[in-house]
């Protein structure tokens, strides 16, 4: 006999006693009287043909009733009748009672176990029913312990015993012990058993053992291939999964839907568009194009590989779409930065009567975050509450992030405080949001509170912390946090963290220290690190450092227009007009153009986009009237246009006119004519705010008594009463 398994659970009695044989008559009075009435007995007898033995007739009748049984109440009546007539001791009949009680949704495992303990000689079929019942009801320990006691009573397993047991394994050790038993009992070469054995090893994370089982299989079926591919895909080894698929193709194994879904899952994780398209061709060749799960998986791959248009073609062709299809498509648009398309698709989804869930809302909130569409984000928040969608950690974090990055930090704080559970991403979203809006000290307070709560910050958290130190002018504290990353939390600083430190030192005027830090970096500086240093040089008028930095920036990217602009502005601010002109001439010679700036503003739930000199808005005439009035009133208040921002050879009047048409000025003018007095104006810009627009917006906030929040590509600028939260450093 095989060695016993060491599973520690309460004993399950396996007895040959049969006290149920002499059950009280009260039990039998609840029999299926209608089924065993004289009329039905006659009808049953007629069906039996040549069966003349009364015991055989009654046995047949009970078994027929068992086949048609639907509830435990009916089963108990049949069971009572069988006990009364002594039929319970028929092995097949008793096994049917246990099978129904253990495996049917309306059954009862307790009743199955009670019946099992009264069977004098249970068969392995009956034992398997019990094990499957425990496994299906998610009682793995009881399944394993039942097996242990089964073999101690000389009831030996068959090829159907181990698949359920492998599903019940909670640890690798249990799985390995069962693998040994499987081999000793002679089932290690059975394909069905091997497939579930592979699945067990994969579930326990032991892909090496799963692969050994797979490679030793002499007769693999499609389930074997699908299981191995799925295991690699599940444990984030998509390249290995695709290698198995290639081998499967070489061996001319015909795939099924499940194997192809697993391959597409691997393609999505590996971002392998070529294999995905090959699978798409296989799907069409096999004629299974309307398999919903399969087509949804294909949509997911195309979205993750940036082919959103291909995903949309599949989406539009699907005759029946479930919520998962809609979520895949909406998320695909968001990941492809097509935020308006995601919101339009959600509108279409509503018109179809499909209700969104947490996943839908997270994607839509992310769209609002990037668009700066605060009003739409607020509507989504109300929709979440109206539809009673539970706000879990992921959805709560998305709300905090949306409010924070749309400049409504008060609402972000309120959502944060209302969350019952927060993870490191939730805290990070708030800390980063506070840092972006210039509330450095508050961000650091929350970082301290996060540490006190026992949560360990990650690398992204420290980006927010260092940004907060920069905005608050806390150089020493910034250095301390930077050092604690490696020394306390074991986080290796990335180039983003070095960029933050350069910003901290540069903001404080420590240009030389910032340059020294760049030299000591373990990696080469990128355009963002050097761009931050060049910005600091502009603020502090350090021409020599600016020239050195600009030279390195142009070596990295000679087409980057922002570098030319910044260096030209530095020359202009120091009165070096010839040098400034030389930079501008160089731009013309190299055909360098500054990337077109655009600004977004949301009015009554609609996001409007402006570019320089935009005339596409239907309210353009009123906007330009307000712009003229705005410039006039600003000049009266002391505003002087900064013409150094113009990089082309124009006369002074043309220069002034050019800078007055910048996209953020148009967006603000539209906000002034479209909102009530005193209402905050929120603008999102794709580029860094230029110096002239920054100065002009400070004057606008004071002259028109408006709070103006501008989010550029670096940070928030909160203008109020003629001042900006960035303290003129950005």
UniProtKB/TrEMBL annotation:
PPR repeats lie at residues 123-157, 221-255, 322-356, 392-422, 423-457. Keywords: Repeat. Signal peptide: none annotated. It comes from the Eukaryota. GO terms for biological process: RNA modification. GO terms for molecular function: RNA binding; zinc ion binding. It holds the Pfam family PPR_2. Residues 638-730 form the DYW domain. NCBIfam families: PPR. Belongs to the PPR family. PCMP-H subfamily. This is Pentatricopeptide repeat. It comes from Dillenia turbinata.
């Amino acid at each position: 006999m095989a060695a016993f398994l060491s599973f520690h659970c309460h004993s399950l009695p396996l007895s040959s006693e049969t006290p149920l044989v002499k059950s009280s008559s009260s039990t039998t009075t609840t029999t299926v009287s209608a089924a065993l009435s004289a009329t039905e007995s006659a009808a049953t007898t007629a069906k039996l043909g040549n069966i003349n033995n009364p015991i055989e007739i009654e046995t047949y009748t009970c078994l027929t009733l068992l086949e048609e049984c639907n509830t435990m109440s009916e089963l108990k009546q049949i069971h009572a009748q069988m006990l009364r007539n002594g039929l319970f001791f028929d092995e097949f009949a008793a096994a049917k009672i246990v099978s129904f009680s253990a495996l049917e949704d309306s059954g009862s495992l307790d009743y199955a176990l009670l019946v099992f303990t009264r069977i004098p000689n249970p068969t392995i079929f009956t034992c398997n029913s019990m094990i499957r019942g425990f496994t299906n009801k998610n009682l793995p320990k009881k399944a394993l312990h039942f097996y242990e006691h089964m073999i101690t009573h000389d009831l030996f397993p068959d090829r159907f015993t181990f698949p359920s047991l492998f599903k019940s394994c909670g640890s690798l050790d249990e799985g390995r012990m069962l693998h040994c038993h499987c081999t000793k009992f002679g089932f290690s070469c059975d394909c069905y058993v091997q497939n579930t054995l592979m699945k067990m090893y994969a579930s326990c994370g032991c892909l090496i053992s799963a692969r050994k089982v797979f490679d030793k299989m002499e007769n693999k079926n499609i389930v074997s291939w699908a299981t191995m591919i799925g295991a690699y895909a599940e444990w984030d080894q998509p390249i290995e999964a695709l290698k198995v698929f290639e081998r499967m193709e070489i061996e001319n194994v015909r795939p099924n839907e499940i194997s192809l879904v697993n391959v597409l899952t691997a393609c999505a994780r590996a971002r392998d568009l070529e294999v995905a398209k090959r699978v798409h061709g296989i799907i069409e060749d096999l004629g299974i194009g309307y398999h919903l799960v399969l087509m949804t998986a294909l949509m997911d791959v195309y979205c993750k590989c940036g082919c959103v248009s291909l995903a949309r073609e599949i989406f539009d062709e699907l005759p029946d779409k479930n919520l998962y299809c809609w979520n895949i498509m909406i998320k695909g648009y968001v990941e492809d930065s097509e935020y308006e398309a995601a919101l339009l698709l959600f509108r279409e989804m509503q018109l179809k009567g499909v209700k969104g869930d947490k996943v839908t809302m997270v994607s839509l909130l992310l769209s609002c975050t990037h668009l700066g569409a605060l009003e739409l984000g607020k509507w989504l928040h109300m929709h979440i509450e109206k539809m009673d969608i539970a706000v879990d950690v992921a959805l709560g974090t998305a709300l905090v992030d949306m409010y924070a990055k749309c400049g409504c930090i008060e609402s972000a704080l309120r959502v944060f405080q209302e969350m019952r559970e927060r993870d490191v991403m939730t805290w990070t979203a708030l800390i980063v949001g506070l840092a972006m809006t210039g509330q450095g000290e508050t961000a650091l307070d929350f970082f301290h509170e996060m540490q006190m709560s026992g949560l360990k910050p990650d690398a992204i958290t420290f980006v927010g912390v260092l940004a907060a130190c920069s905005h608050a002018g806390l150089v020493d504290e910034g250095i301390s946090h930077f050092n604690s990353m490696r020394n306390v939390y074991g986080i290796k600083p990335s180039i983003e963290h070095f960029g933050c430190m350069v910003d901290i030192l540069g903001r404080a005027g420590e240009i030389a220290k910032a340059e020294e830090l760049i030299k000591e970096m373990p990696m080469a500086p990128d355009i963002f690190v050097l761009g931050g240093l060049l910005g600091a040089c502009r603020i502090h008028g350090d021409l020599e450092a600016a020239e050195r930095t600009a030279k390195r920036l142009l070596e990295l990217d000679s087409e980057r227009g922002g570098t030319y602009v910044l260096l030209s502005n530095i020359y202009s601010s120091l009165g070096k007009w010839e040098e400034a002109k030389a930079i501008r001439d160089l731009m013309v010679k190299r055909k360098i153009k500054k990337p077109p700036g655009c600004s977004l503003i949301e009015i009554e739930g609609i996001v409007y986009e402006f570019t320089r000199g935009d005339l596409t808005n239907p309210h353009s005439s009123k906007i330009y009237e307000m712009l003229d009035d705005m410039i006039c009133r600003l000049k009266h208040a002391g505003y002087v246009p900064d013409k150094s921002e113009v990089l082309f050879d124009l006369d002074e009047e043309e220069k002034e006119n050019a800078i007055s048409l910048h996209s953020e000025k148009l967006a603000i003018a539209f906000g002034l004519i479209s909102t009530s007095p005193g209402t905050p104006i929120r603008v999102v810009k794709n580029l860094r705010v230029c110096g002239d627009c920054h100065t002009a917006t400070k004057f606008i906030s004071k002259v028109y008594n408006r709070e103006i929040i501008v989010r550029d590509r670096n940070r928030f600028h909160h203008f109020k009463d003629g001042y900006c939260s960035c303290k003129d450093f950005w």
